[in-house]
Write a structure and sequence with these properties.
Blueprint (H helix, E strand, L loop, with lengths): L4 E8 L4 H12 L7 E5 L2 E6 L3 H9 L6 E12 L3 H14 L4 E7 L1 H17 L8 E8 L2 E5 L1
Helix pairs in contact: 3-4
Length: 148
């Protein structure tokens, strides 16, 4: 994944991707000169050495037109195929002691394939509980990203 790791997924209005990429780079470059922004299946992935909370805080203070949502990436895994990536990601989440009240998969087309497996694996590892954050598992190519 090159320099830095995926720290944010940014949803944008269709047609404004180019301008939003420039604005994201303008906002984050003073804090991390190795930052890069890449389109990933309908969203923009921000790769940086910054912590997700810091990158999100910077962007929230920098007005960018066309941004629909900013999601922090907690964990990322790319094990070569989507199923193995989901399994590795959920295992790492369990090792860190994370708990989720709900786990949803995106995009929905991939969720049909792996949704049952992911929820079953999360339950087996003890990741689902009444308390906890809503988590989103985003599948991009063979990689899996866990976002809040």
């Amino acid at each position: 994944m090159g320099a830095g790791k995926p720290v944010l997924l940014v949803s944008v209005k269709p047609g404004s991707e180019g301008r939003v990429v420039r604005d994201l780079m303008d906002a984050l470059y003073p804090y991390d000169r190795g930052v890069r922004v890449e389109p990933l299946g309908g969203v923009l992935a921000v790769y940086s050495r910054l912590e997700p909370n810091d990158a999100e805080r910077i962007l929230r203070n920098y007005p960018i037109r066309g941004v629909l949502a900013i999601r922090r990436v907690l964990l990322a895994a790319d094990a070569g195929d989507p199923r193995s990536s989901v399994e590795a990601l959920l295992r790492e989440a369990a090792e860190r002691g994370l708990r989720f009240s709900r786990l949803e998969l995106r995009p929905s087309s991939r969720a049909r394939e792996l949704g049952g497996f992911a929820v079953g694996e999360a339950a087996r590892l003890g990741l689902l509980s009444r308390e906890g954050a809503r988590a989103r598992l985003v599948l991009v190519g063979s990689a899996a990203l866990l976002c809040l």
